Structures are given as C-alpha cells and as structure tokens.
Amino acid sequence: MAAAIERRSTVASVREKSGKTGQLVFVEVEHITRADNVEVVRELQTIVYREATTYMAPLPAIGAPDLSNWEWSRTVTPDTTMLFRFSAITFNSHRIHYDLPYALNQEYYPGLVVHGPLMAALLLDLAARRFGPNALSRFSYKSLSPAFAGQPLHLVGRGAAQIELCAIGADGRMVVSATATLRGNDHKSAPPVS
C-alpha cells in the first residue's frame, strides 16, 4: 500500500530552569505525521539540554528492585549494539549513545546512555506482549533519570484499560514512567506515574 507520508516538526516552546545538575533548557517540539493528507500521529516531544558538567557520577549499584507492586515484568539489558542500532534507525547522532570515550570524557556520564525513546519503545513492546499488537490507542511517557548500557532495565506494568508502565534501573530508580490506554477505553488517561 503506497501512501504519501509527511512529517512536520514545529518548536512549540522553549523554557529555562535550574536543576540538580545545573541550568536546563526544555524545548518542546510538536511532530505531526500525515498519510495522504490525513493526520495519523501527533507527538509532543520535550528535549532537555543540560549545562556542561565537570564531574562523573558512578554507575548505579546493581540491586534487586522490589517489583511486587507490578502485575507483569520483563528484564532487558541494553547493550552497545542495541544502542547503536537504535541511534541509526532514529537518526540520533548524539555520541552519548554509542561512543563510550566521548560519553565518559566529554559528557561525564558513567557509561553509554540508553535513549529515552528506546526505553519507551521497550515499554510499548511490554504492553504488546501483554495485550497484543495494536491494542493501545494512547501512550505517554516521561524520562526521569538516565539508564546505562550493560545494566539491567526492569520493565514493569499494571492495569487493564488504563495501564501504568515503568522502566526501573539497576539500582531500583524509576527511570521512565508511562501511561497507556487500550483501544475502546479512550477517555483521557492519567499523567505518567512519578
């Protein structure tokens, strides 16, 4: 099936804030995708730019997070190949995802950073494994903290019509929170879990 696909991106807003790591700039970009002039996807993306840092935090300690409050789970350990491939298919050229010396010595991360959208895709996959493909009508996620290659990422979920999903880092930190709505339950979903 051939269709003319068009994606338009517009900067919706730019906000400055101070955070634990210094100055931050939040840029909201709205993406609208159309197939044969019919809107099929509307996405609001928030990109966070942080002030340069001069110190490196250690990798999070690996522990056994408490997953007892979640109904289903899956553990994935993102590796360098997964990060490189995701960078390639999403045209993300930021070196923190595939160039370890750069991530360590220039950006002062303790390892390669797992993409927020990759973790969101893994959460979508978790929901698809539970409810079947194309079962969701809405999905919203928020990246809360970085996760790093080579460390386990615990993907967890609960709920039926309104679904809560989270990616939990190796040390038990919630790194991504998300909500999803099953088709047929399209009333406005709650904001992501914090």
Automatic annotation (TrEMBL):
One of its GO terms (molecular function) is (3R)-hydroxyacyl-[acyl-carrier-protein] dehydratase activity. It comes from the Bacteria. InterPro entries: HotDog_dom_sf (IPR029069), Mitochondrial_HTD2 (IPR052741). This is COGs COG3777. It comes from Sphingobium indicum BiD32.
